[in-house]
Amino acid sequence: MKRIIITGIRGGSGSTTIAANLIQALELNEENVHVIDARSENLMRFHFAMDLSVQDGWAKRWLNGESWKNAAYMTPNSLSFIPYGGLTLEERLVFQQKLLSTSTGLLDIFPIQPELTNMWQIILLPIVHDLSESYDALLNSADMVLCVTKPDIQNYAYIQQNAIFRRFEALYKPYYLINGYQPQSDNSVDLSLVLKYELDKQCLPMFLHFDTAVPDACSQLSLVLNYAPHSQISQGINELAFWLLTHFSTKAIEGK
d(Cα 233, Cα 131) in Å, to the nearest integer? Predict the structure, then answer.
């Protein structure tokens, strides 16, 4: 099983959109894949036409002693999506207390399944600043940690100055994906080039463009790959999927 964990430098980086659409791109390449929303905001469902009245999710199931798999939701396009679920304030407190009592945090909930040799598992985690020790073992179990950043001064300053980010970078050696690139903006172009230079080999070779098709698709409760398959962002996500396929194929050949 290939486990890809996706997070973002800051809120609004686009990591939820990328995680949701990446499973569609991998499915189009005939890969077996599912995505888990591990953010308590429970917003990924906007991409999968999930009725907003439905509060079910893996967090609720786990509180009831069930497996996260029991919360799996099959989208109209036959994509496998596991929502976080809507917890009450009381349930959130119980959830945190129960999580703190586990030996390895979220890895106790989502253990590695080596028998699933042909499966891709994408897990969306909270932004870097909100990653507590409860996420450490899960992050260490990943085949790749992918951190999404935007080419703006706020994201750049966070990368340069924040101690929490420095810990995250040192522990997990993440790859970085630049999202929201705007070629008509000198500031966006300059910061993209600076980020690509400073992040060096850990920065993926593609830029994902800013595209108004993303909020339009989300408002229609649809993936942008379905809503606007020929948009720039859709092309970028397909390029990302192809890069991941090539990356892991190369590692398999090298025996890593």
Answer: 27
The gap from C-alpha 253 to its chain's centroid, in whole angstroms, comes to 26
Judge if pTM exceeds 0.90.
Answer: yes
Could you give the CA distance from residue 201 to residue 198 in angstroms, rounded to a whole number? 9
| 8 Å CB contact between 228 and 17 | no
The radius of gyration of the chain from alpha carbons, rounded to an integer in Å, stands at 18
pLDDT digits (tens, 9 = 90+) for 158-179: 999 999 999 999 999 999 999 9
Q: Determine the length of the chain.
A: 256
Question: What is residue 72's three-state secondary structure?
Answer: coil
Question: What three-state secondary structure class fits 132?
Answer: coil
What is the C-alpha separation between 60 and 88, in angstroms, rounded? 10
Q: Which residues lie below 8 Å from residue 39, measured CB to CB, with a gap of 6+?
A: 16, 84, 124, 125, 126
Q: Find, among 202, 187, 186, 124, the residue nearest to 156 by Cα.
A: 187
Helix crossing, 15-28 with 232-254: angle to 10°? 70
Quick one: pLDDT band at residue 77, thresholds 50, 70, 90?
Answer: confident
Amino acid at 180: G
Three-state secondary-structure class, residue 2: strand
